[in-house]
Amino acid sequence: MTAPRAGGFNGAPAGWEVVIGLETHTQLSTASKIFSGSPTGFGAAPNTQANVVDLALPGTLPVLNRGAVEKAIMFGLAVGGTVAPYSVFARKNYFYPDLPKGYQISQFELPVVVGGKVPIVLDGVEKTVQLTRAHLEEDAGKSLHEGLETSGVSGIDLNRAGTPLLEIVTEPDMRSAAEAVAYAKALHSLVTWLGICDGNMQEGSFRCDANVSVRPKGQQEYGTRCEIKNVNSFRFLERAIEYEIRRQIELIEDGGRVVQETRLYDADRDETRSMRSKEDAMDYRYFPDPDLLPLVISEAEIEAVRAAMPELPQAMRSRFSEKVGLSDYDAELLTLTRATARYFEDTVDAGANPKLAANWINGDIASRLNEQNISIEQLGLKAAELAFVVQQVELQKISNAGAKKLIDATCSGAIAAVGRVEVISPAVFMTAIDSLGLAQISDASAIESIVEEVLTANPKSVEEFKSGKEKAFQSLVGQVMKASRGKANPAQVNEILKKKLSS
Amino acid sequence: MSLISDDIHRLAKLARIDITPAETVRTLTELNNIFSMVETLQAVDTAGLEPLCHPIATIHEMQLRLRPDEVTETEHREANMANAPQQENGLFLVPKVLE
Amino acid sequence: MTHELSPLHRQSLRQLRGALDAKQVSAVELAEYFLERAGTNAELNAFLHIDRDLTMAQARTADTQIAAGNITALTGIPIAHKDIFVTRHWRTTAGSKMLKNYISPFDATVVEKFKMAGMVCLGKLNCDEFAMGSSNENSAFGAVKNPWDKSRIPGGSSGGSAAAIAAGLSPAATGTDTGGSLRQPAAMCGITAIKPTYGTVSRYGMVAFASSLDQGGPMAKSAEDCALLLDGMIGFDAKDSTSVVTDEKYRTPISAALLAVFASASPTGASVDKPLSGIRVGVPREFFGEGLSSEVAQAVAAALAEFEKLGAIRVEISLPRTSLAIPAYYVIAPAEASSNLSRFDGVRYGHRATQYKDLADMIAKSRAEGFGAEVKRRILVGAYVLSHGYYDAYYLQAQKVRRLISQDFQEAFKHCDLIMGPVAPTTAWKFGEKSNDPVAMYLEDIYTLGVSLAGLPGMSVPCGFGQNGLPIGLQIIGNYFGEAGMLAAAHRYQLATDWHSRTPEAFK
Ligand SMILES: [Mg+2]
Ligand SMILES: [Zn+2]
């Protein structure tokens, strides 16, 4: 095999068309496993989360987890697919030491979700990726090769065995690595938005396999495809596909032929290589699992899931722009994650002006999160607290600068909720505003008296202003603010000063 | 239909059972006898019939019962691994897995 | 009859209950008595594992419960389990070298239910490897001998259970039936057994052979004993997804109905001398064709005549696809078995080869060494019928034929309440007689396979003896959840006959 030439290109070269389909294994975030009552947490000591069912001890039987089914239904509804009223669990038979039963319980002919679509945007162009299906199955365990005293062996940890997976399969709809990544990102944000998957790619909660083939432009039939496995980041997905495209095109151009096979992406070498262990054409001998009956999903069950489903980002965006009156840009930013959207809505529900709340969240709050590299849930400012701060700004009780100081003090813990109350009460905030000296003077008569004092004390500046020097006005504003120790409402100061000077 | 010894090898490999040449010969005869008995199934007209998933489905529809998503298990690693042929640090040991 | 004078091993469960309640015997004494018999008759090879200390601990618990008056119908009565049911403490081998030293960390639901009811476990009973076989010759630990003739097979796969009951080594036993494994050994050993409706007895903790067919059931000396045991065995189990939810419409409360049968002198509306009047007994003509030995045909005919004497009405019926049950079964059962037995790979438990090149070789050698010939044969057949290109023609077609077979029974039950016929074409054969011809052995199951495929309840009731003095069984088949009616009819028959209380000379 010829090594691909150095110096890649993005997408296919002239004359070639790339065809990509993705299969994504999303771990469903249930408390217990798909067929047993074992916990599903990540990182536990080996085999401490594998019970007799997960270990496939003789005599054990599977019982399906309702939570996994509900999450699959929710996914089906979210992508506009058909939630199958009747689906069947089948056994996929193969031997592997991390597959305890010698078969994986999966769905084959009749999956739980059929069809559906995922919209993607790439370079401002919208496109829809069609889904073939999504099916429920169980995850396998892990083989570990390091840190064992015994030599020449692998260790088998079955904690992950039986974790529920939803395998989401697309049609061969993508035409470049960039499109494939855009789809993977869109899918990732959808499943995390729905809360059916934690999306943690490092821990393997969201794993993509890519089926890649190339064909001369204009050719109707697909080229021979290779399946790339073991891609655990969006960046690697892009690089693995690009490598594979180059490899296949160069192979064909050099007179070779693509062999249908499974290839593993090696991130260290940035290449894909054939998985010899899976080389012999697999005959999985699928058949309906006689330990499980058909999964029947009623219209009522679907409706119950629909009722519990969070509003989807698209719907939320248009609601934010149409009903709340936010700009498309603000609406877009607020719906990047469900946590942000929820924070915004909670802030508004707690009484904040929506536009002001959006400005604060997309501005000050966003840059705080960025600087500290934390999520909005980790920020030490609750939505109700932000709402109070925003209200005070709107009521002109504090200035923007004052508000920032108040948020600083809240996040740093300098202001804290009293007693058992979780949210800082208005009373505590008011005390803090006082003690930090953040209260803004908006009382017209109080400002008038300060202005009069300043005018009396600065006859020279008044003269200069009257002779046309605009700069003198700014200097007087500065003097008033100084005299009020920064607390005077600047807008009112401007207005009153103008009135006095022109009288 | 008749099997040949290559079929026996393929099946033995699929089923992960080591098979000796002598066993292959004997198994070939036995399986061919079994399949000639099974052949009578082919003549049955089953057009339009659904396969039977659970015997009781003959008389009324059967569907899967679901379990609430609750953790019901506590840790019993030692007891669960007591029959392991080889283990170390809570891991089942096997000859090196090549990927 | 002189029940009071008969030795403990010939007493019914009801008599043992009476003796325990009257403090004529203690649970400890009963357990000791039967363990002693098991020990002296070890040459039958019925038991695979006995642990006296474990048994005695359970017996002492039972005595405490009896003393406290905290009893069920079964408290203190000994039972032994087919080695297909997993047990904590006692080894569970499934008759296989693969699981030679395996000890389960949990009890099968059936084992647990009997333990909760206060029964005392005597140990584990021999069987064909993974319940695959009709002669018990497939046990890795040697065949069980038939108590009626030790040169003959006890039937299979629950051969150890049948022999233990026939020889009086235990008053009660569990067995499992996938294609006839409760009924055929019961017939061969002259005891009574019932395979209930599929889904009524939990499969949790039964080492799986063919999941859609496997069903546990009791084996004992009489229908009455089986009824008491079945009552303790059935019940919905949330751990088994195929366990049938007790549905108002379909569930005859088996226990209540059974106990009512035995409590009343005669069923309502029936006279004392015609207790079964009005009951229609269907006799399928396909069960009496070529291959049925004349001695079995005669004994079954006599039994049918006896049922008519008791008031039953004989109805000629047809089960046209009887012969198709054999090929359908020998596709479906091996297919499920090939997959069910994939877990035995030498990784987490079970036999591991000592010599191997690599991981794949370790698995292939462990399986080659751990499994016996019949098990391997069925795994290969199963792999074939599921493999690419053959699935539709074999597995799918067999499952459709299964529906036809099931529908035939439903059609038959429009004309009758029970179906009766032989359990097996012949009486017990000599060891080695059929071991070289698997297909010939498979054909022996012709009368039991259809019932298994349809998931119907079926029982075997002793109904006579052949020329060699070997017992013959009558098969009674009921409709779904019809166990109470079957057991009641069998009980009436056993009140009128004494075939079930005959005992082999050496074990009197
Ligand atoms: Mg896949
Ligand atoms: Zn998958």
Oligomerization category of the chains in this entry:
heterotrimer
Number of helices of chain A: 15
Largest sheet of chain A: 10 strands, mixed
Number of strands of chain A: 17
**Largest β sheet strand count, sense and barrel closure of chain B:** 2 strands, antiparallel
Percent in helix of chain B:
25-40%
Order of helices and strands of chain B: HHHEE
* Strands of chain B, count: 2
Kindly, what is the distance between the CA atoms of the first and last residues of chain A, rounded to a whole number of angstroms?
A: 91 Å
Instruction: Pick out the low-confidence regions of chain A.
Output: 1-9
From the spread of the alpha carbons, the general shape of chain A counts as elongated
Q: Please state the structural category of chain A.
A: alpha+beta
The rounded distance between the terminal residues' Cα atoms of chain B is: 38 Å
> What percentage of the residues of chain B does DSSP assign to strands (E)?
5-15%
Largest protein interface, residues of each chain: B-C, 54 and 79 residues
Describe the protein:
The complex is a heterotrimer of chains A (503), B (99) and C (508). Chain A has 15 helices and 17 strands. With 503 residues, chain A is an alpha+beta fold. Residues 1-9 of chain A have low confidence and may be disordered. By secondary structure, chain B is mainly α. Chain B has a two-stranded antiparallel sheet with strand order 1-2. In chain B, a hairpin with a 2-residue loop joins β1 (87-88) and β2. Helices cover 38% and strands 12% of the residues of chain C. Chain C has helices spanning 13-21, 27-40, 52-67, 109-116, 159-166, 183-189, 223-233, 254-263, 294-309, 325-340, 359-370, 373-386, 392-412, 438-443, 446-454, 483-496, and strands at 47-49, 78-82, 120-125, 173-177, 192-195, 215-220, 280-284, 313-317, 418-422, 458-465, 471-477. Chains in contact: A-B, A-C, B-C. Chains A and B meet through α1, β10 and β17 of A and β2 of B. The site of zinc ion (ZN) has 3 residues of chain A, from loops. Zinc ion (ZN) is lined by residues 25, 137, 167 of chain A.
